[in-house]
Amino acid sequence: MKRLLIAAAFSLLASSSASAMGGAGIILDPKCLSEAAWAVDPTAGPIRFFGCRPASEIPAPDADGYTTYTHPLVDGNDGGFTRVKLITLKQPNIVVFNVQDNGGGSGTMSVTVTGVPGPNGVMEAAGLVAE
User: Fold this and answer.
1) pLDDT band at 41 (very low <50, low <70, confident <90, very high)
2) Mean pLDDT across 119-123
3) Distance between CA atoms of 84 and 52, rounded to whole angstroms?
4) Cis check: omega of the bond before 72, within 30 degrees of 0
5) What 3-state class would DSSP assign to 3?
6) Residue 9 confidence (pLDDT) above 60
7) What mean pLDDT is predicted for residues 68-90?
8) DSSP state of 72
9) Are the CB atoms for 112 and 98 separated by under 8 Å?
10) Which spans in the chain are helix H?
């Protein structure tokens, strides 16, 4: 019985860690991603995908696989949101993810990004593709 409880606890811990990391060992933080110029040209500069806050503060993905960051209110009005979902990892180290960004209005931009994640939580502009 004790072994069963330990195995169940380990399984739960492993699955929640995988969820926070997009299931593939990479953590995509929508708060960091909210700082990119999604409406202009997200590939114009590097994109920070991790490192804006501790991993423990990044919420788990929702039922659709998106992790959401709610922007602060702007003059008391809705500030919008940024959502991110890992689509796939391509070998050797290319990641593909979808970002949905809303600045508080009725329109939401959806961008699929392909890039090479750096160890510092940044994808350099040179390898980025946004569609």
Assistant:
1) confident
2) 90
3) 15
4) no
5) helix
6) no
7) 91
8) P
9) yes
10) 2-20, 30-33
Q: Check if the beta carbon of residue 110 is closer than 8 Å to that of residue 100.
A: yes
pLDDT of residue 105: 82
Structure tokens at 12: 């739960």
Do the beta carbons of residue 95 and residue 86 sit within 8 Å? yes
Backbone φ and ψ of 111, nearest 5°: -130, 130
pTM of structure:
0.77
What local confidence, expressed as pLDDT, does residue 2 receive? 38
Q: Is 75 left (phi over 0), alpha (psi -120 to 50) or beta?
A: left
State how far the Cα of 48 lies from the Cα of 28, in Å rounded to an integer.
9
- The two tokens of residue 50 are 């991790």
Q: Which of 71, 93, 70 is nearest to 24 (CA)?
A: 93
Peptide bond into 42 cis (omega under 30): no
AA identity, residue 4 = L
